[in-house]
Model the fold of this input.
Amino acid sequence: MEKVKERIELLRKQLHEHNYNYYVLSQPVISDFEFDKLMKELIDLEAEHPELHDPNSPSVRVGSDINNNFPQVNHRYPMLSLQNTYSEGEVTDFFNRVKKGLNEPFEIVCELKFDGTSISLIYEKGRLVRAVTRGDGRMGDDVTDNVRTIRNIPLILKGDNLPDYLEARGEILLPWSSFEQINKEREEQEEPLFANPRNAASGTLKLLDSRVVASRRLESYIYNITGEDLPTDSHFENLKLARNWGLNVSDTMRKCKSPDEIFDFINYWNVERKNLPVTTDGIVIKVDSLIQQRNLGSTSKFPRWAIAYKFNAEQAISRLESVTYQVGRTGAVTPVANLEPVLLSGTTVKRASLYNEDAIKALDLHIGDMVYVEKGGEIIPKITAVDLEARKENFMIGDKVRFATKCPDCGTTLVRNEDEAAHYCPNSEGCPTQIKGRIEHFVTRRAMNITIGPETITLLYDKGLIRDASDLYNLKFEDLVNLERWGETSARNLIESIEKSKSVPYERVLFALGIRYVGETVAQKLASAFPNIDKLIKATIEELTSVEEIGNRIAQSLIDYFSKPEFMQFVMRLKEHGLQFELSEDVLAAKTEKLKGLTIVISGTFKLHSRDEYKAMILQNGGKNSGSVSKNTDYILAGDNMGPAKLEKAQKQGVKIINEEDFLKLIE
Ligand SMILES: NC(=O)c1ccc[n+]([C@@H]2O[C@H](COP(=O)([O-])OP(=O)(O)OC[C@H]3O[C@@H](n4cnc5c(N)ncnc54)[C@H](O)[C@@H]3O)[C@@H](O)[C@H]2O)c1
Ligand SMILES: [Zn+2]
Done:
């Protein structure tokens, strides 16, 4: 008995933590399948031991995505989760339960289960007034500003017979193509990758800068209409009408009458879903009639009139042939597993990522091992386990995999910092891959936008014409025109493109330098806080971390960069070539110091300007914008629906609360 209690408590604790990683941080550490297995164990144990019931158990509560960066809003109708299963038998059980519960004819609607993050779009008289996340099911985060940037969410609905009050509920997702693009950029920045499009979508929806959200190409799929005076009693018909109103309803939903028809739908989409532009992780099976739905009711966590059947992630088994290492432009070394080619989710897989030394150790990997590979949405698949049974009878088994000690490119001894998982090649000045990688980053479209490909960079590097990106500005027409396969036009084009890059604005030049952890957004933040490079070079850790979103890790990386003579000389050479190392006149002219020294927290929704506009105004006027209330807060700029937690904290700390008009007077 004591044992069971301990196990239940441990499971609850673990599941709470995984919920937090998944919903709030958008960085899960275990797979959904493993999570669902733990949850099932908890549910089964709790069913056997009703005396250990706890209303706060993760088995009876919706996992919450609430963080304190957004105002919270109550849901008029609760937003629940779905009961889920991986077993066809449980789908049949569900069907029979419904049949028994209703004891009258009924119809089922089968839909794809889109794997993103849920949203409730509130339309009043056809206008989008609010968009709220699921939160804990009873209240969610108000992310209206961000949702307004999603192109297939109409701000005004079409048609005349619209209900006065309407909640369109659906999923916000990131198509595969955008997900891969974002992860490619994060990889270049050596930022942690999103495990799958779902985490990328939920992470994006909770960003504080709507402009970044707008650039990420989120999409919505609407799967439910709630409200008073709905047009019909059929969920299916209402969704069809919603499509005419302009909402994006998938045309894959089908009506079914029997378990067999449901299984046909499941089997069809288990194959066909691989051709969809977005991720799906199962199908949802719902009772069609709204009256029947109400009669069946809900638990505190999910409706009794629906169930989700989830697809298993696809796995393959293959032999590990070797482990090789790749060096990135910041010197980070990543291990790659080379496998005997094997078919997985329709593509031939030859490589899998191994992340870092700890991941290799955890798998206890040996060359020749039979390993399980899975494609969970990553750019390249990952190894999830080793077949230990197979190892026993395996005559081909080789050495235990040990992380490389030398750089595969330049032979320098690798280093690993104490609190980091990654190994680095410290030879930033002489390691060819790093040098070429930095030049490739420097010229990308979003940095200096110079039209030159990796092959040309390698060619010019091998010929000794460039040793770093600043040498691009020394290139002469004569240097290029005589190169093999080059002509006058290509030589002239490159010279012109290089010349043009001298007018690229300061923030993009900062990004182009390729300082570890300094991505586009960070570069923008730095540029507005330190309007020229000399100020940035002189900035202390404290000054750097006082800028919004700049933490210790980024600050330390900047300090390290500017303390290396080779990088300082590089920056000076770029300066001599005439690149932009300060904010342009017009940006500077608009700047004031009216809010100098003041820290302001923004909370609630506003009428006169958007949150982002207010944020920009604070920065433009020399103030600091912070996400949470603390003893350093000077003002709270409060709109409607300010989060109750923030309000209470503000009153406790005695922070002054001002409204939109007061704020605008401050900067008049
Ligand atoms: N790996 C982890 O650490 C971890 C942690 C927490 C949760 N999870 C995963 O998340 C699941 C629980 O998440 P959840 O509560 O959001 O449930 P869920 O994602 O399994 O199902 C409910 C959600 O499905 C979505 N949905 C998509 N298409 C739909 C449709 N056509 N009709 C209705 N709803 C539709 C809705 O947003 C709804 O909220 C777990 O089963 C687990 O797989 C994983
Ligand atoms: Zn090296």
Q: What stands out?
A: Residues 18-19, 21-22, 28, 30-32, 35-36, 63, 81-82, 84, 111, 113-114, 118, 134, 171, 223, 284, 308 surround nicotinamide-adenine-dinucleotide (ligand 1) (CB under 6 Å). The chain is about 40% helix and 20% strand.
